[in-house]
Design a protein that fits this description.
Blueprint (H helix, E strand, L loop, with lengths): L1 H31 L4 H53 L7 H6 L1 E4 L3 E3 L12 E4 H6 L3 E2 L26
Parallel strand pairs: 2-4
Antiparallel strand pairs: 1-2, 1-3
Helix pairs in contact: 1-2
This protein binds zinc ion (ZN).
């Protein structure tokens, strides 16, 4: 159905353009058969306006048709790009930046951290997915445990107390 409209729209657009040019040409010829300029005007005006209208409609149809085709192509490209991203990162690609942000860790010199970790708080460090940090040889931080376990309560981070964790 969609495909049929695409080809139909393109053909209709071309048809309108050709018909418009033919009408302009006919009007020009009709005007040319009179030497009296006052008799030329009706031909020029009616042929010119009707022909121009047809050409404009045809051009609009062609533009709409090509935009539809472009959009279909664009959507296909975006889907392919998303698939590639998902394969590369191992994460479902998402349009929501907030959702993607929760999957990111902060990469330190030798370990990676949750963005909320106090060890990296206030430091300008790179954010990346966990998989990327691990493949770069970084260890998960022992304070904030960013590898996916339960988040440690950072309000009582004293390891000597022995009451940390669950
Ligand atoms: Zn940390």
């Amino acid at each position: 159905m969609k495909l049929r409209w695409n080809t139909l729209g393109g053909k209709l657009g071309l048809l309108f353009c050709v018909a418009g040019l033919a009408v302009i040409w006919a009007g020009w010829n009709g005007a040319g058969s009179y030497n009296d300029i006052r008799k030329q005007f009706p031909y020029l005006i009616s042929g010119g306006i009707a022909g121009l209208a047809l050409v404009v409609i045809g051009a609009a149809l062609l533009i709409i048709q090509s935009q539809r085709a472009d959009r279909v192509q664009l959507e296909a490209n975006l889907t392919e790009l998303r698939n590639i991203l998902e394969r590369m990162t191992g994460l479902p690609a998402s349009n929501g930046a907030a959702e993607a942000d929760t999957n990111l860790v902060v990469a330190g010199p030798s370990a990676y951290h949750r963005p909320t970790c106090k060890l990296v708080a206030g430091r300008d460090l790179r954010k990346m997915p966990v998989q990327q940090a691990e493949s770069a040889g970084l260890e998960p931080c022992r304070t904030c445990a960013p590898e996916g376990g339960a988040e440690v309560d950072l309000a009582s981070p004293d390891p000597a107390s022995g009451t940390r964790g669950r």
